[in-house]
Design brief:
It contains eleven helices and 16 strands. α1 packs antiparallel against α2 and α2 runs parallel beside α7. The strands form four sheets. Strands 2-3-1-4-10-11 form a six-stranded mixed β-sheet, with helices on both faces. A five-stranded mixed β-sheet has the order 13-12-16-14-15. A three-stranded mixed β-sheet has the order 6-8-7, covered by helices on one side. It has 368 residues and is of the alpha/beta class. The chain is 31% helix and 24% strand. β7, α6 and β8 form a beta-alpha-beta unit.
Length: 368
């Protein structure tokens, strides 16, 4: 029996099983089995067909990477051409784009690389079409734009989410705050900060751990999480990526439908052909990428406002700033002077752990 057939069997059994406290352990075991089989699929196959688990060979350029994912003929190529000026062939037939086409958008001093990926089809996570290559490349992106056609039903959204979830990509989620620590003896110790009934009970936790052959571990939940979150933590190969749902071809729907669509979370309605709301899309990308611009100031000179050093907010410290310039810079650093909203006075003398804000100015002082 092939891996895909085994996955289908487990999914059918999960659909048949009622969800209640008595079956939580059994469902937990099935979900763990499913995650292990999916991991087998991700590992590159020795035979041909469907491409391996490797993505397209595109060098990472610029400060952030954004990938366009969607079904064929939803307007991904037109969107890339209008945003970046890079020509990506567009035609009235499906699967016009057969490889990854990169382009660069310059916005607020940052270089953002955009990737037009080939259209995916249902079953992409199982290796159909070039699905595995497309989704492997999507895993390397800082932001995913899921391009949808407003005329085709929004069930497309559910299908794409299902394909990406099956490949270990979690959209618009934060990593679960679950502590999982293996130990040599003592069995499974399960604790939680949640009062009252929880989504996870000891039976389900033990069933999942048994499937992974973990018999001694400390597991602590800071919040209420379900079996899927526990499986994600044990697997450890999950990628948490922000996503924007770009609804294209809005020139073909009514104003009332557009107003409803505009109120949905993470949605951005555009028309690539007429270039409607493309500025709003780039602004939304900037917001979701959560980037910080830091300007450099040589001693005795004015700051360089043309070429900022762009960092992700989670890494926006003097240490991260030094590493972005050159990996040897931190060893030579004595202290730094900072001007801007993160400084208490101007300039403020700071060490490597100082957190920087957007549009701060930094002057590094080296050891002599």
């Amino acid at each position: 029996m092939s891996v895909i057939q085994k996955i289908k069997e487990i999914e059918d059994e999960m659909a048949r099983t009622q969800k209640n406290k008595a079956t939580s352990g059994h469902l937990g075991m099935l979900k763990a089995k499913l995650a292990k089989l999916r991991r087998e699929l991700l590992e590159p196959s020795k035979g041909g067909g469907g491409g391996g688990g490797d993505g397209f060979d595109v060098n990472k350029v610029g400060d952030a990477r954004v990938g366009f994912v969607g079904f064929p003929s939803v307007g991904k190529s037109t969107l890339l051409t209008k945003l970046t000026g890079t020509f990506s062939e567009a035609a009235s037939y499906e699967f016009t784009t057969l490889t990854c086409v990169p382009g660069i958008v310059r916005y607020r001093g940052a270089k953002i690389q955009m990737l037009d990926l080939p259209g995916i089809i249902e079953g992409a996570k199982d290796g159909k079409g070039r699905g595995r290559q497309v989704i492997s490349t999507a895993r390397t992106c800082n932001l995913i734009l899921i391009v949808l056609d407003c005329l085709k039903p929004l069930t497309h959204k559910k299908l794409i989410e299902h394909e990406l979830e099956g490949f270990g990509i979690r959209l618009n989620k934060k990593p679960p705050n679950i502590t999982f620590k293996r130990k040599d003896k003592g069995g499974i110790a399960f604790t939680t900060n949640v009062q009252g009934t929880t989504l996870l009970d000891l039976d389900a936790v033990k069933a999942v751990c048994a499937e992974y052959k973990v018999h001694n571990a400390d597991i602590h939940l800071a919040e209420d999480y379900d079996v899927d979150d526990l499986v994600d933590v044990i697997e450890g190969s999950r990628v948490y990526v922000p996503a924007i749902y770009v609804v294209n071809k809005i020139d073909q729907i009514t104003l009332e439908e557009l107003e409803v669509m505009d109120k949905l979370p993470h949605y951005c309605p555009v028309c690539a052909y007429h270039e409607w709301n493309l500025d709003g899309l780039v602004e939304m990308c900037w917001e979701y990428l959560d980037l910080v611009r830091v300007y450099t100031k040589p001693k005795g000179k004015l700051p360089d406002f043309n070429e900022p050093v762009v960092l992700h907010r989670s890494n926006a410290t003097i240490e991260g700033f030094c590493n972005k310039i050159h990996k040897t810079m931190l060893k030579q650093l004595k202290y730094a002077h900072v001007w801007g909203s993160s400084a208490k006075h101007r300039p403020q003398k700071v060490g490597k752990d100082h957190e920087l804000h957007d549009e701060d100015i930094v002057q590094l002082v080296k050891k002599i």
